[in-house]
Amino acid sequence: MICLLADWLKVEECSEVLGDAMVVPGECLNGGSWIASLNSCDCPITYGGRLCEVHLCLNGGFLAEDGRSCHCGKFEGKHCEQPACVGGMLNVHGQCISLLLFFDITHLFVVIILSPVLLLYF
């Protein structure tokens, strides 16, 4: 947040109050890069605004009241950048893996299928 006022003041309100007075050349937030010819920043896809001060939500998500987090629906992550993992689990790489259990009472064993290819027998 670029405001030097109280934390409860939202970015939109702060920008309106402070206007261009807060634009400091070369000082972009959230990983943005200053572009002198445009007098603004080139922001990562997850941030917007002149100084990359606005938190953006992807995939149809919308900004929560706090202005710092997203309501994501069928997505998750700080900016709703990844599909939600429903009915599965995340592996060490953050990928969603389906977890299906099959019980064979006749042979008294359980097969756990961790898609895409790993089979575990008990």
- Give average pLDDT, whole number: 71
- Stretches where pLDDT falls below 50 for ≥5 residues? 1-13, 15-21, 115-122
- Give the CATH architecture of the largest domain: Ribbon
Question: Topology as H/E string?
Answer: HEEEEEEEEEEEE
Largest sheet: 4 strands, antiparallel
Q: Give the overall silhouette.
A: elongated
**Overall helicity:** under 10%
Arrangement of strands in the largest sheet: 9-10-11-12
- The CATH class of the largest domain is Mainly Beta
Structure keywords:
122 residues, mainly beta, Laminin, 2 domains, two-stranded antiparallel sheet, 1 helix, 12 strands, 7% helix, disordered N terminus, disordered C terminus, membrane, transmembrane
Folded structure, characterized:
With 122 residues, the chain is mostly beta strands. It folds into 2 domains: 11-83, Ribbon (Laminin), CATH 2.10.25; 88-121, no CATH class. The chain has one helix at 11-18, and strands spanning 33-35, 40-42, 47-48, 54-55, 62-63, 70-71, 75-76, 82-83, 88-90, 96-104, 109-114, 118-121. The strands form 5 sheets. The chain has a 4-stranded antiparallel beta sheet, with no helix packed on it. It has a two-stranded antiparallel sheet with strand order 1-2. A two-stranded antiparallel sheet has the order 3-4. A hairpin with a 4-residue loop joins strand 1 (33-35) and strand 2 (40-42). The radius of gyration is 23 Å and the shape is elongated. Residues 1-13, 15-21 and 115-122 have low confidence and may be disordered. It comes from Toxocara canis. Keywords: Membrane, Transmembrane, Transmembrane helix.
